[in-house]
Records
---
Amino acid sequence: MKFAVTSRGDTTSNGLKQNIKSYLTEFGLTLDEQEPDIVITVGGDGTLLQAFHDYNYRLEDTCFVGIHTGHLGFYADWMPEEVEKLVIHIAKTPFKVVEYPLLEVIVRYHDRVRGERYLALNECTVKSSEGTIVMDIEIKGEYFETFRGDGLCLSTPSGSTAYNKALGGAILHPSLDSIQLAEMASINNRVYRTVGSPLVLPQHHTCMLRPQSDTDFIITIDHLTMMHNNVKSIQCRVADEKVRFARFRPFPFWKRVRESFVE
Ligand code: NAD
């Protein structure tokens, strides 16, 4: 089996990364940073998000496992003290793989023929440096509402515990092939009106955002922020691809939610 290890870059994470590399090599595994079967991330959820984007060209063949050197992460759920146990699991036992849905985002432009396609593990947000954004929202090809407010967030089920949660969105179990649209401070009065509740869309229900007048937007894909100019539309749906996580022990989603937010 081929493996890669990534680190957040701090001293503790770098040290742990080196140990994992040595242990796994001693166990006969091959270090392959281009085509790993398993990617072990050391740091936090941000480190795993970065690794997901670094290896998103081979999602069908790579699975991820995360170790947290800070607080318990949602993706990074192994503790540094458990590293030796984890390494033995990786080297000696066939592991289970769980697949979670991803969000596909296609940004199209007025001045370009080709759009840009992105995959998000957590979410895509759309905001403006000017303040309020005004977007017509279409669902499954039909006009739904016109949104005026700070921005919009489209999240995956596993990303529903991240930014989406801070916006009052629901927490969705990752077995649901769906995406969630949550508003950021919509303007609601006699003139402007939106539904106000987060919407959960199933697979194949494409959500299209069409700017009314301004065409320059700040679009985030997970931890990555980009300025997009001349935007004609932003199309979001459940992606055909999935992310794969290596599971060596049961750590049910709702247990992770309780340990992260309730306990
Ligand atoms: P960061 O360093 O600002 O950390 C954001 C926090 O979000 C960390 O505590 C991380 O553990 C947590 N997190 C990330 N993914 C999560 C998930 N799926 N479920 C629960 N918690 C999660 O930034 P980063 O580490 O680069 O992560 C980028 C993420 O930060 C974005 O994808 C977005 O979800 C999140 N974010 C949240 C808010 C907010 O809650 N108001 C605002 C901006 C960004």
---
Amino acid sequence: MRSLAVLGATGSIGASTLDVVARHPGRYRVGALAAHRNAQGLAALCARFRPELAVIADPACVDELRQHLRASGTACRVEAGADALVEAASGAHCDTVVAAIVGAAGLPSTLAAARAGKRLLLANKEAVVMAGSLLKAALHAGGGELLPLDSEHNAVFQCLPRERGSLAGAGVRRIVLTASGGPFRGRSRAELAAITPDQACAHPNWRMGRKISVDSATLLNKGLEVIEAHHLFDAPAERIEVVVHPQSLVHSLVEYIDGSLLAQLGLPDMRTAIAYALGWPQRIDAGVGTLDLALARRLDFEPPDLATFRGLALAYAALRAGGSAAIVLNAANEEAVAAFLDGRLPFLAITDVIERCLDELPPQPTSDLAGVLDADLTARRHATRIIAALSA
Ligand code: NAD
Ligand code: MG
């Protein structure tokens, strides 16, 4: 029986994970659940899944969490604060960690899970983008394994030879990541000037948290995924391509040197990727139905519009620049997306803020978590100044 810590339990990935877990009561138990501020939601999950440990990252919400747990008669240890996330990821109550916190806030716990030798089911792509090399070193030191939850990387993982998680020696020519194109595919820049947060979050194929939904609309999500693929599969930028596939049925592909192109297909439902990672190397039921190809009728592909959706081009530039450039890209994006969701920044300015941060903050080498967090903070401060000036 595997014991899970689900970090980001109240989010979209958290809910899909717990849905799969609930289908296999004899196979998985929940050792820890963690969330940011949603005390009520976390308490309800604790009442249902009975973890040993519940962590609420914002200490201001801990009393509310305790009250809800008491009201439902749920007994579990309660901890609060960012350090408690690290404990939730590394303690003896779990052998498997689902890293599903959104943004840089997930980095320390993701690294801690790797260092502690857990099986790491990784959705928190921002952690890989910021500190891919540190994460790989931590995995090596801990002796655990990483299984990607991001649907594209999960697809690539499924299309690579079983014994290798990376491209090295596998005869791979390139990785092709598919992108839905987001809710504004086909629109011009002029048509994007007045986009509202709700319009940006209305993704055509996937229901996800608000931050990743905005990232999908700018194509920055695909940019983060290119950097994620670079780290997870040891692939140089020139061997990672992106193709727009509006139906989101082909989740990504691997091309081999003999010309073979292997793809993973399925309905757009994250439970498939989650179940694959939970059960690996076995297959388990995900609760996902059949993709009826005759009903779907067509699979379309087209090149991404890099001029309108500059997020993808900026991410390739950051990957090629190296050093802290990917940290700057991610931090500037997190700040700009938060400002956009707050109504403080227009949609098109998100990528302007990122571009200016990349131009104005030269890449620095980073060799440890403190250095990564320092570069992250510097970039956030810079982005905040640019956003304030733009919205004045
Ligand atoms: P979400 O907004 O639905 O959920 C985020 C979760 O993180 C919540 O449980 C929230 O409480 C927690 N959280 C937020 N800030 C935190 C903090 N400071 N400390 C502790 N916990 C915090 O987001 P989501 O859509 O589930 O995405 C989660 C991650 O998975 C993101 O990195 C995203 O890019 C990635 N991902 C999501 C999907 C998807 O379909 N939703 C697909 C691929 C990858
Ligand atoms: Mg994805």
